Amino acid sequence: MTEHAAWAEIDTRKLVKNLAVIRSRINSNVRICAVMKADAYGHGLSGLVKEFARRGFTDMIAVGKFQELLEISNEPASEKLELLLLGVAAAGEIAQALDAGRIIPRRTIFSAYSMDMIRELDSVAERAKVCLRVHVRIDPWNSGMGLSMMEFMNNEDEIFRLKHLEVCGLYSHLYTAYSEETDEIESTLRRFSDFVENINKEYREQLTVHVLNSSLTFRFPEYAFDMVRCGTAIYGLQCWDEGTLQPLMRICARIFDVKDVSSATPLSYIRGAEEEKSRRIARIMMGVWDCPILLSLKDVRIHINGRLYGLADDVCMDNLCVDITGADDIKVGDTAVLMGEDGVTLGEILDRNDISFVHGEGLCMTARRLKKVYI
Q: How far is Cα 11 from Cα 372, in angstroms, rounded to an integer?
């Protein structure tokens, strides 16, 4: 039992089960890339990288921001992992990180969204006297989030013959992945597949091609190509999985004070009620800066000793107050659960607040300061 005032439990046993479910959907020769952007969807980037490296869950980790890449690049636990940056990094900051030894080129992979970026990366690598590895992003809609298929084909020889780049991957991302437009999704996937088929055979052999995210891995596994990128599925968040995945996160806090107070007593920044009425409260040291979205919902409920309770007042930055009027079995030291028990499961919170499952990942947004405990 942890002695922290507030913490998020991450159940790695469920992580193992979720990865097994994902693996059952794809061929044995298809790789799984674990997407850990946004602090591993709130589950703790550094901690989960250590878990993945220790258990050999995968050989590739994807992050969204350059700073996330730098955070884990020299982490000893990640020495056997390839690190893929899905976002954009400026040439200057890459050059500075290379000069400072903060990037290990042989296991770091950058994304290139345009021919200009590809050429810039080649120039950075030349000046640093290294070879940089690159995955080229393809934009099926030519919206600016990657090269168009035509642009890639027109520049194919140049892309693969640059002296200081190893173009080792090709990918796309479908923003329609969570929609119900099945025909449109499949049409886009077919078009992407036709495009891949037309890549020069010599070049294709050196590429890891990936287009499926969590949702598409469950809906269109036949388009897995060489690798799938899974974020929400790994963390047990809904993604057209039909209930086969299990959420990893349980958000908890220790009750540090229980007392009877007047309803006229202010418990946060809001003035108390004019009518004086006794009520029983329990305080916990967790606030909106620990779980920004979860604790900003209109209907926040707290699970304590098998029952659900509402808030006694607005949540503060660092603490909140639970109305436990009528409960005599709650004492200092008891555990309050904000998410991860009956009545406050992720799905129940979404339903109660009329939030689409697509946005469920937002409820897992936790601050770095909130302790992560891996069980």
A: 10
pLDDT at 265: 79
pLDDT band at 344, cuts 50/70/90?
very high
What is the Cα–Cα distance from 66 to 109, expressed in whole angstroms?
Answer: 11
- pLDDT at 1 > cutoff 60: no
Other C-beta atoms lying within 10 Å of the C-beta of residue 159: 23
For residues 22 and 106, state if they share a domain. Answer: yes
Q: How far is CA 173 from the centre of its chain?
A: 15
Helices H, strands E: what count in the chain? 12, 16
- The CA angle 337-343-347, to the nearest 5 degrees, is 100
In sequence order, the β-bridge partners of residue 167 are 134
Q: What is the DSSP letter of 370?
A: S
Residue 7 within any structural domain of the chain: no
Q: Which helix (H) or strand (E) holds 309?
A: strand 307-310
What is the Cα–Cα distance from 168 to 204, expressed in whole angstroms? 9
What band does 153 get if pLDDT is binned at 50, 70 and 90? very high
Which one of 198, 230, 262 terminates a domain? Answer: 230
Neighbouring residues of 370: CB distance < 8 A, sequence distance ≥ 6? 6, 7, 8, 251, 286, 290, 291
Q: 240 - beta bridge partners?
A: none
d(CA 157, CA 145): 21
Q: Taking the chain, what is the end-to-end CA distance rounded to the nearest angstrom?
A: 10
Three-state DSSP class for residue 82 = strand
Domain that residue 153 falls in: 12-230
| Three-state secondary-structure class, residue 320 | strand
Q: Could you report the per-residue pLDDT of 295-330, keeping only the tens digit for each?
A: 999 999 999 999 999 999 889 999 999 999 999 999
Of 165, 187, 161, nearest in space to 174 by CA: 187
